[in-house]
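Interim report to the steering committee. The following record documents the input for Bicarbonate transporter-like transmembrane domain-containing protein (141 residues).
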Amino acid sequence: ADKMDNYIGVGECLLLSCVNGVIFALFAAQPLLIVGATGPLMVFDMSLYQFCQTNEIDFLSMRVWIGIWMTVIGLLVVAVEAIALVRKFTRFIEEIFASLVCIIFVYEAITNMAAIFYDHPLLEVYSCGYYPSNTTSYPNT
């Protein structure tokens, strides 16, 4: 929510994951399969939001169109049984993708910590309640 100016937050993700899971369980007959927001989806949404801000495009309408196109592509994949191509993917490709997502999250954490340190730098004197007895004036807090 912080990265996307509260367009999509935790509440929306939980609600839509619940609705999506119920629909998936009703049509796929797999009620125990977990369908929800994941790290790559969050990275995609952050990147899409930055893209939309840069090009002055409405984020939510772009997200709806992406959802519509994903539905069309998913139906085409099912219609031609292209899911059989999944066996061509190896574990190596999965690990590369997971590593890229991990690098993005580590980068975001480091930039957030750097921004916090920039806003609140370390000072030589902190007001922690203890002052030496030979100090006559207290530092500004």
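The radius of gyration is 24 Å. The committee is asked to note this result when reviewing the revised timeline.
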